[in-house]
């Protein structure tokens, strides 16, 4: 029998046998989940010798949910994530035509998971398009509830667009072309503050060197520019002992201090290619964060390996997820790379405070890839690789983590 994880004033309370809901996912979801859950259980067993174990409980979403219940995202699933605080999910088919725009977006909005967290680091041996991928070690905090993704959009020619255009002209004197579709981009002080605080808290907790606020404030002064201003204010008001800015120092960041800096989004995307070592924790708004997370993931080997999490640090709710799609043409073939969901599990164990289990998995995955013992997607880009199935890859990781745990 598992127990509930709870949130208290002193933080997350994790019992030794936490109940954790999982969504297997559609398409190749069952292939990667079957591999990942064996790795998770083996790591916890190895790290805690039976004192701790996860009580997994399956909940439905996506195609499997639709086929069984007629709903893409049953209320019971949302409730399970609410009650259990933490969950993990594989990729989901996006319903085509009406209803929910995206199941992932729906879950993020309903649970107010305001941070999309994407660590981006290089695993030695992973094929990469850049010369020095090992210099990339960043953690992206992408705001998850505002910006153009808040979904305030009206179609060109619609009654709503006509009303809005009239309002803009009559009340504000803005002449917008009458055949325009319009999207509204809200960026609030509240949304910015809680995101930047999460990024700085993370930087403090993980001994990171800097937090970079990425924005287009040179053009969009009252949204992206305000994000920059509010970001600096949060650091100055709430973290004066932990942070410095370039204005406070000559050119050396004092030991133990975190540098708060900012970068314009287009320059940032150049500099992460030309001088990646200068960036560490990154805090940004939704749309910039979307581009940045995927561009950085590509630098370290991309789609099959990038993990992610959506988190509300105040309520404790968090959903850890594979960041790729369902890759349906490989469904049931036991060939797909499970690393994205496996590393999402590493993030989950870190979030639970089960760092020993997280480290065992991370180390064993590093060793397995380092031996060039990999699934087809990496094998086709590597010299002298041994191409293996999803389940063989998992077996090798388990063998390594057992060996490391016994050592
Ligand atoms: P996709 O499922 O990510 O697959 C595109 C290609 O990426 C695959 O054909 C494969 O490339 C490669 N790939 C993806 N995951 C991989 C893995 N684990 N290991 C190795 N290679 C991997 O994207 P899509 O075909 O555009 O989308 C399919 C469905 O997934 C759609 O319904 C989409 O809406 C949904 N989707 C869901 C999520 C989510 O739930 N988070 C995210 C994105 C898309 P090769 O064929 O070259 O080997």
Give descriptors for this structure.
eleven-stranded mixed β-sheet, single chain, 41% helix, two-stranded antiparallel ribbon, globular, 17% strand, 407 residues
Provide structural commentary.
The protein is an alpha/beta fold and 407 residues long. It is 41% helix and 17% strand. The chain has 13 helices and 17 strands. A hairpin with a 6-residue loop joins β14 (307-311) and β15. α1 crosses α11 and α1 (29-48) packs parallel to α13 (390-406). The longest helix is centred in the N-terminal third of the chain and has 20 residues, at 29-48. It is globular and about 70 Å long. The two termini are 31 Å apart. Residues 91-94, 104, 303-304, 321, 324-328, 336-337, 340, 377 line the site of NADP nicotinamide-adenine-dinucleotide phosphate.
Structural class: alpha/beta
Report the C-alpha radius of gyration, rounded. 22 Å
Instruction: Please state how the strands of the largest beta sheet are arranged side by side.
Output: 4-3-5-15-14-6-7-13-10-12-11
Tell me the major beta sheet: 11 strands, mixed
Small molecules bound in the structure, each named once: NADP nicotinamide-adenine-dinucleotide phosphate
**What's the rounded overall pLDDT mean?**
94
How many alpha or pi helices? 13
Content of β-strand: 15-25%
Distance between the termini: 31 Å
Which H/E pattern describes the elements?
A: EEEHEHHEHEEEHEHEHEEHEHEEHHEHEH
Molecular shape = globular
Overall strand count: 17
In percent, how helical is the residue content? 40-55%
Low-confidence stretches: none
């Amino acid at each position: 029998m598992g127990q509930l994880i709870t949130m208290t004033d002193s933080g997350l309370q994790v019992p030794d046998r936490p109940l954790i809901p999982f969504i297997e996912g559609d398409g190749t979801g069952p292939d990667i989940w079957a591999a990942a859950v064996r790795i998770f259980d083996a790591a916890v067993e190895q790290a805690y010798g039976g004192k701790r174990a996860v009580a997994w409980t399956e909940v439905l979403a996506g195609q499997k949910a639709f086929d069984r219940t007629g709903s893409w995202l049953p209320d019971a699933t949302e409730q399970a994530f609410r009650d259990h605080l933490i969950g993990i999910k594989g990729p989901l088919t996006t319903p085509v035509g009406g209803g929910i725009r995206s199941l992932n977006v729906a879950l993020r909005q309903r649970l107010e998971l305001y941070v999309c967290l994407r660590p981006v680091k290089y695993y030695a041996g992973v094929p990469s398009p850049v010369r020095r991928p090992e210099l990339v070690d960043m953690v992206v905090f992408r705001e998850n509830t505002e910006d153009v993704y808040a979904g305030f959009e009206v179609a060109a020619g619609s009654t709503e667009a006509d009303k809005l255009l009239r309002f803009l002209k009559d009340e504000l004197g803005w002449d917008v072309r009458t055949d325009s579709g319009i999207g509204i981009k809200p960026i609030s002080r509240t949304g910015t503050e809680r995101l930047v605080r999460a990024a700085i808290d993370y930087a403090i907790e993980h001994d990171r060197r800097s937090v970079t606020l990425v924005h287009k404030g040179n053009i969009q002064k009252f949204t992206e520019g305000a994000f920059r201003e509010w970001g600096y204010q949060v650091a100055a008001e709430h973290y004066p002992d932990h942070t410095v800015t370039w204005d406070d120092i000559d050119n050396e960041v004092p030991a133990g201090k975190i540098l708060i800096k900012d970068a314009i989004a287009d320059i940032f995307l150049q500099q992460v290619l030309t001088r990646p070592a200068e960036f560490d924790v990154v805090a940004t708004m939704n749309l910039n964060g979307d581009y940045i997370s995927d561009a950085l993931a590509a630098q370290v080997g991309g789609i099959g390996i990038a993990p992610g999490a959506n988190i509300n640090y105040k309520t404790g709710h968090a959903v850890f997820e594979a960041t790729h799609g369902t890759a349906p043409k490989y469904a049931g073939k036991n060939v797909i790379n499970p690393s994205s969901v496996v590393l999402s599990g590493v993030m989950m164990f870190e979030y639970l405070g089960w760092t020993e289990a997280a480290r065992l998995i991370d180390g064993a995955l590093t060793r397995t890839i380092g031996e060039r013992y990999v699934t087809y997607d990496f094998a086709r880009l590597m010299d002298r690789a041994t191409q293996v199935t999803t389940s063989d890859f998992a077996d090798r990781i388990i063998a390594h983590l057992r060996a490391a745990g016994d050592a």
